[in-house]
Amino acid sequence: MQTASSGDIPRQIETTPPVNVETFASHVTLTWTSLGLSQFVDIADRVDVVPADSTPIVDATNAAGRRRLPLPEIDTTTAATKYVRFEPDCPWTLAWERRTTPVVSLCGSPSPTVCQQAHIITTIEDLDARDGWNTVETAAGWTRDTYETLVSVLEAWLTLMTVTTTTTTSKDAKAKATPMVSTNTQQRLRMTTVNKTIQVYQRIRTLRRQSNIRQRISPKMVIFLTLQMIPFQQWSRKLRSQQIATG
């Protein structure tokens, strides 16, 4: 059975205006041109998962940086507001950006219903005069076939994401299960280093015992070298005991 690839997913859903589709490893982005900001802000009153008391992120020319604002404080009557993004308690975000023609972007893992409703709210004027605008069969600008295409696109992306994640996880697990150096090799390298270090300090101890060296080393240096040898002597005895115990 062949799995879907990103090239198999349609890049556009034919409605008015069309919905552009971009797929990524972690999310999907759906974009379309929209009406003014006031229609976009109305989403909070018309889509259940976006609370009416939302405080979206707003970027405006009359304030420094982006900030969260209650809906009544968002300037929808002038061109000061450049960007607004809703972040509901859902696996997606919904943003409006002022361009030559404003653009709405739905990013994350949205449901087909949320996408359809957000598209209608931001592209249809006088929505209150249209009965059944939020149902699949009578949705403004949408047909059953268009909706089914949207469902297929989101399902195909979700399948592709699941397969990609599973494959990546399997590769990571396999890589972790295969160490670069075997345990025995690591132990041999460690013992070689320890033995070399002990040999060096044993040589120092031998030289320190020689009378001609004693004459050239101060008493303080002799004490220092002796103290430095103590932990290595204890370490050596412990490691050699472990070697004898393990054969």
Q: What's the SSE pattern?
A: EEEHHEEEEEHHHHH
Strand order within the widest beta sheet: 1-2-3-8-7-6-4-5
Mind telling me the C-alpha Rg?
A: 35 Å
Shape: elongated
Strand content bin: 5-15%
Structural class of the secondary elements? alpha+beta
Helix content bin = 40-55%
- CA distance, first residue to last residue: 54 Å
Main pleated-sheet profile = 8 strands, antiparallel
> How many strands appear in the DSSP assignment?
8
Estimate the mean pLDDT confidence. 77
As residue ranges, the low-confidence spans are: 1-5, 177-181
* Count of domain modules: 2
Count the DSSP helices.
7
Please describe the structure with a list of short key phrases separated by commas or semicolons.
247 residues; alpha+beta; eight-stranded antiparallel beta sheet; 7 helices; elongated; disordered N terminus
How does this structure look, described?
- The protein has 247 residues and is α+β, with helices and mostly antiparallel strands.
- The protein folds into 2 domains: 169 residues; 64 residues.
- 47% of the residues lie in helices and 15% in strands.
- The chain has 7 helices and 8 strands, in the order E-E-E-H-H-E-E-E-E-E-H-H-H-H-H.
- An 8-stranded antiparallel β-sheet has the order 1-2-3-8-7-6-4-5, with helices on one face.
- Strand 4 and strand 5 form a beta hairpin.
- Helix 5 runs antiparallel to helix 7.
- The longest helix has 34 residues.
- The N terminus is likely disordered.
